[in-house]
Amino acid sequence: MTYSIEIPESARLSETDMKMILAGELYERGILTIGQSAMVAGLSKRTFLELMGKYGFSLFQQNEEELLKEIGNA
Q: Residue 70: CA atoms inside 13 Å, Cβ hemisphere, count?
C-alpha cells in the first residue's frame, strides 16, 4: 500500500526523518513489529533499533519475552 502526503517545507523534515517518525509511532502503538517498522523506515532491523532513541521512541513497549524474541531476530 502506498500513501502520499504533503508536509510543509517549514517542518524541515527529511524523508528519512518522516519514515522514522511514522515507523517508530506504528511500532510503539503495537501496529507493526520491529522488522516491519524497519522496512517502513527503509533500514535494517539493527539500524532501526539503534536509531529509535534518537527519535524519542522506546523499545520497551513489549513484555520481556516479546522483546527478547525481537532482539533475537535482529
A: 23
Written as nine digits, the cell of 73 is: 531476530
Q: In terms of C-beta distances under 8 Å and separation of at least 24 residues, what long-range contacts does 62-66 make, across chains too?
A: none
Place of cell 539503534: 50
Q: Which of 36, 29, 39 is nearest to 61 (CA)?
A: 29
Burial class (CB within 10 angstroms; exposed 0-12, middle 13-18, buried 19+) of 30: exposed
**pLDDT string in tens for the chain (74-residue length):** 888 888 888 999 999 999 999 999 999 898 999 999 999 999 999 999 999 989 888 876 656 676 677 677 65
> What single-letter DSSP state applies at residue 22?
H
Domain ranges of the chain: 13-72
Q: pTM for the whole thing? A: 0.73
